[in-house]
Hints:
The chain is mainly alpha-helical and 504 residues long. It folds into two domains: 2-208 and 219-353, no CATH class; 374-502, no CATH class. Helix content is 63%, strand content 5%. It has 23 helices and five strands. It has helices at residues 2-17, 22-32, 44-56, 60-83, 88-97, 102-105, 114-134, 138-153, 158-170, 181-193, 195-203, 207-218, 224-253, 260-265, 268-275, 278-290, 305-320, 329-367, 376-394, 407-420, 443-446, 466-470, 483-486, and strands spanning 399-402, 429-431, 457-461, 474-480, 495-502. A five-stranded mixed beta sheet has the order 2-1-3-5-4. Helix 20 links the parallel strand 1 and strand 2. The longest helix is centred in the last third of the chain and has 39 residues, at 329-367. The protein is globular, with a radius of gyration of 25 Å.
Amino acid sequence: MAILAVTAIVRLIACSFVPLIPEEAYYWMYARHPSLSYFDHPPMVAWVIRIGTAIFGQTETGVRFVGSVLALAAPALMYWMARLWVNRRASLIAAAALLLLPVYVWTGFINTMNSQLLFFWLLSLYGASLALRRDHSIGWYIAGVGMGGAMLSKYTGVFVGGGIGLALLMYRPWWRRLYSPHLYLGAALGVLMFAPVLLWNERNGWASFRFQFVDRTEAHPLNSWWTLWSTVCFVLLQSVAVTPLLFALWAQTFRRRQHWLGRLLGQPLVVFSAATSFPLLAAMAWKSILFDVHFDWTAPAYLSVLPLAAQTLAARWRINRREPAEVAVGHIAAARFWDRMIGLTIGACAAGNIGCLLFLLLIQPHTGRPAVFGPWRPLAKVVDRYEHAVEDQTKREPLIVGRGKYRLASELAFYREPLELPSSSSDFTTSEWFLGDVQGLGFAYWFNRSGWLGRDCIFVTDKDDIAAVVSDRFDRVQLVDDPALRALPGGVTYHIAICYGFRG
């Protein structure tokens, strides 16, 4: 509890000072445009941010607060879920892993949809474990709520429900559960929770499903050399995400066992772990062949693996603590190896997590690197100065257009918000799709080009080809030469063009 309390305090302090990354700002734009669902993701992240900003205002804390709360609740859920399968020590180890492993530490602190996905995924695992291990029918309804919440967080949430179903089929003693009406009612509850996403897609030509599952795949044809390189990168990325120790513990589970497949199918925890992890890992491995897989996309897959790995680790710990006379020479050597590996992993994770946090709090604000964290606030102030100048000149508020699909536009909208009160900058900021040459993602559903015909815009970019991009779209373009743009930290020079008379 002390570790959780310290983690909560540090997280809440840090999330108030570290700038939003573009994805967070983009999801904040979701929250500013309420909808049943969105073009590229389900709506849970928007709901979470909307609750947080209702409490703390349009601030970094508001965007991250609820995600941080869910991330901090996840270790408790992990402990309760693991306790249904393993002893108390192993359960505590599994819960502590969520506060230590790199792939989980930054969940919630950087509020993408993964904090919600992990929380509801764990809730579904807990409910299923309750039904399978304690024969409590209410567990299926908890699992259904977890599955529905996971799917509302990210489409990969469907894998938790599918994995639980696969586990029921793989382990023969669980077949009788297939006759329980509560199993199907719980699943129906999860599907019903997902109805807003289905309704939005039905109204919009199934745009989100086509984008995620058809268009992106067709845009990346297979290439043999790229396939090999992507596979290697994927494996290395997983080693960093959960450390080699987790894989070593996983392998240790099956070491020196004859007929391992038969033994696998005869152990309920192994079956449950494999069924709720391998399908998502396999899907992400395939996805990595086609395009980049982000660091945290596989995070839910390891949640059911942690109790199994923790059980192995706890068993090794018991062997290591025996008197030397009670342990064979080979076991003593193995014990020393595991002690060193565990100590090295804990030390490396703790040092890396603390080092990254100190860097973001103390060094990044002065260097502007990595560029993903800024310099959004000072750039927004410069842009806002020109926005007010144009508004004073034309008596109408101009539209701010950020270069690219969503990153720059979203950051400018968020960091201009307190400067634009009582109006909302999210209503007057869009991305390059507005000019017709770039995919608009959610922005295409939030803005209407025809409503801005004849109006003025301010185009902001980190490239110097402004004339080629905007000259054909406006009656007149005025390039801005401002030393403040060249003085921004981070080494990236931004450019501004004031564009009069949008032609469409």
